[in-house]
Structures are given as structure tokens and as C-alpha cells.
Amino acid sequence: MLGFITKRLIEIIPILFLVTILIFLFVHMIPGDPARLVAGQDATIEDVEMVRKELGLDKPIHEQYISYMANLFKGDLGTSLKTKRPVLEEIGERFMPTFWLTVWSMVWAVCIGLIIGVISATKRNKWQDYLGMFGAVSGLSLPSFWLGLLLIQIFAVTLGWLPSGGMESWKSYILPAFTLGTGVAAVIARFTRSSLMDVLKEDYIRTGRSKGLNERNVIWGHGLRNAMIPVITMTGLQFGFLLGGSVVIETVFSWPGLGKLLIDSVAYRDYPVIQAEMLLFALQFILINLIVDLLYGVLNPQIRYE
């Protein structure tokens, strides 16, 4: 396994190199002049050009990229154009709120999604199955921003039970975590149902039942264990999406996380912060995929690492 992990970590290097090129080009294609924003709307053309020179934006784009990579190798992600603080500090402050919001979203989404998926698979074409899949389709169909605003109206404005935004206490996590995890729970429920239904048709399941194994052990111990591989793949991808893509939810709930930081940075054309965040999101996806591959072997020891 150590060789497999080492090989995968080495493979990450050229992928990240390609990602940095794409991110750098993408960021510089965003309409707007960061030098004008930094200098201020009332600044003269000479002042704007002076700021552009200070930021190094007057150089050819390939020279800017080389300078960016040189700083990156030294662990320097640059300085925020908006706050004048190191980008590493900006991201460090926003990472944990997004991380914990994502974790709590995934916890309830995985638990509920698995339960609905198992019930739907074992009660196929019965009312429990129809009810579970109706809930899953509804969860996928509801726009997250609409669901978030609806929950704020009901539980924060009308009932006054929960805060409408910000991150002040554990209660602040409930509404955004529920909103963020609804779509994930729906996806996990559908994947679990489909995968478990296929597994329950296998010969070893029939053999287990013929030997008198308890139905609960057959489903949860043998069936679900083997049905989890595609579910884990999807769960890993969803975790990566949530960690890097909770932009809308963080904006709706005024959550002080990476998503809101990215929105603010794009509005301000804060190139160093945008580049660092996108690179972080890409790295998260790559590492999550590696963890998912390692989990395959835990669930099914017959899978070999090569």
C-alpha cells in the first residue's frame, strides 16, 4: 500500500502543475482591472499604471506565471490585494468554518441517505420505496438557495428558533448544514438503493439466506458492505464538491468560510486569493480521490493496490 500511495502522490505533481496553468489563465481572463480597483475609482491613469507596475501586472503573462510559481515553491501564496494580508492567513481563517460546515453536512447526509437507500432497496416497489425516492428526487430538485431562504423564513424569522446567519454557536450550523447536505443525502440514497439492489441478487446473498443467516446480517453485514464501493466514490466526490463549492450557501447564510471569501475575491479581482483558493480546491479533490481509492481496499480486501 505504501508503494501505491507514493506512486499516487508523485502523480499529483504534474496534475497540479497543469492545474496552476489553467487557474492562472482563467483568473487573468476575469473581466475587470484589479489595478483600478486597488487604486480607487477616482485615481488618475498615472496612479493606476503605478499600481499595476507595483503588482507586477504590467509584465507579460508568462513572466507573471513564472514569478507566481517561483513564489509558490517557496510557500508564498502572495498578498491579498484587498486586505493587504498574506493569502495564507486569509485562507487559514476561513478554512475551518467551511470544513466543519462540510463535515456536519456530510454526517447527516450520509446517515439519512444510507438509511433511505437501504429501506428503498429492501422494500422495492412498496410505499416505503416510493416515499424514499420521492424525498430523494425532491432533494435533488430543490435549488439550494431557495431551500436556504425558506428555512431562514420558517425557523429564523417566523419561529425564531435558530439564527438566520453568521457563525455564533452550534445552532448556527443547523440550517446551513441541512441545506448543504440535502442534495448529497438524495444522491447517496439513490446510489445506495441502486447498488444494494444489484448486490442482493448475487449468489452469495442467496447462499447466506439459505444457511439461515439473519436478514439484518445479510443486508447490513454482507449486502451493504459490498454495495458501498460506488456509494463511497460518489460520497467522496460530493465531499469535495461541498468543501469547494458551498459558495451559494455561505452567501445565503453569511457564513465566514472559503465560499464567501471566493465571492468577495472575485468581486474585487483579488487574483492572489482566487488563485490560492482554486488551487486548494483542486488539491482537495485529488487527495479525496486518493482516500476513496484506499477505502476500496478496506471494504473489499480482494482489491489490490497497484
The first-to-last residue Cα distance is 8 Å
**Helices and strands: which structural class?**
mainly alpha
Helix and strand run: HHHHHHHHHHHHH
Overall number of strands: 0
- Our Rg estimate from Cα atoms comes to 24 Å
Strand content: under 5%
Residue ranges: pLDDT <50 for 5 or more in a row? none
Count the DSSP helices. 13
What does this structure look like?
The protein is mainly α and 306 residues long. It is built from 13 helices and no strands. The chain has helices spanning 2-29, 34-39, 45-55, 61-73, 87-122, 127-141, 144-158, 171-199, 203-210, 215-245, 247-252, 258-268, 271-299. Helix 5 (87-122) packs antiparallel against helix 6, helix 5 crosses helix 8 and helix 8 packs across helix 10 (215-245). The longest helix has 36 residues, at 87-122. It is flat, with a radius of gyration of 24 Å.
Q: What would you say about this model in short?
A:
This protein has helices at residues 2-29, 34-39, 45-55, 61-73, 87-122, 127-141, 144-158, 171-199, 203-210, 215-245, 247-252, 258-268, 271-299.
Summarize the helices and strands and which ones pair or pack.
Elements: H1 2-29, H2 34-39, H3 45-55, H4 61-73, H5 87-122, H6 127-141, H7 144-158, H8 171-199, H9 203-210, H10 215-245, H11 247-252, H12 258-268, H13 271-299
Helix pairs in contact: 1-13, 5-6, 5-8, 5-10, 5-13, 6-8, 7-8, 8-10, 10-13, 12-13
What structural keywords apply?
306 residues, mainly alpha, 13 helices, 0% strand
